[in-house]
Amino acid sequence: MERKGNLMTYRPDIKVFDATIRDGGLVNNFFFTDEFVKALYLANLRAGVDYMEMGYLADTDVFKPEDFGDWKFCKEENLRRIVGNNETDMKLSVMADVGRTNLQRDLLPKSESVIDMVRVATYINTMPAAIEMIEYADSLGYETTCNIMAISKANTADIEEAMKLLAKSPIKAVYIVDSYGSLFPEQIQELTKMYLSYMEPVGKAVGMHAHNNQQMAFANTVESCSMGASFLDATVGSMGRGAGNCAMELLLGFLKNPKYNLTPILQFYQDYILKLKEDGLKWGYDIQYLLTGKMNLHPSSAIAFTKENRTDYADFYHQIFDLEP
User: Fold this and answer.
1) What confidence category does residue 45 fall into, taking pLDDT thresholds of 50, 70 and 90?
2) Verdict on whether the full-model pTM lies above 0.90
3) Which of 9, 152, 160, 303 is least surrounded by CB atoms within 10 angstroms?
């Protein structure tokens, strides 16, 4: 499988997907101000971003509403408070986690919602439940994707079986999700080829969602894109859980499509992301996240390390050897 496109051209099939509120919300429990969310919405519009993820559609029986901001639950009235009827070319999405979402209760028919897409997040071992959710969202009129989390922990046979199931489903795209930031471009290349071998023949796309534990998020996104992935996730300032994600400012600076405009994202970074950092929110590459990425571990131990303001990196490195399966 050859690379698609080159550094002097652009592919019109590429869709840039802003996940700042959703993945970034894991940093501050989704307590973004309306001003912040509205400013990001307008910046994405001006930048030519194709999709903006507004947050999660989380189950209030699982998560207490008082512990989180509005964007953990994405109720319709809160969405419309920001975007009105979203009479724009940019589409909006929410993420629905298997086992943490009640779609039958909380997802309105598409005709009654400003949301365009439901992204179903699943681990490889809960694929049947994910497909059930995908089919339900599709029946209500939504675009759907399947985001297979922690793919670095899955074996090839299970991934291939999941691809066969998803190829028969109504998804628009299936995502490679490097949840632990443990993968390198060579591995991403092979995964992208595998995903495309199942999705391309049935007219479905492949997406890439990268984490930056080993400072590979941008490189992995570019590698996946070069092999044919077309749905590319990014967050402004790389804001996201733990080490963060592929930075939107890097991605828009790389893509050659003239529809994309970097300036509004830089202005938003200047006006809003810097303020979050000044207020003490922490995310992004650091040694503890490097180490969990290297060990292919969930970043929860590194997040705890960060909250405790620890700097005993060598001790931490040897402590997490005991966490390796």
Assistant:
1) very high
2) yes
3) 9
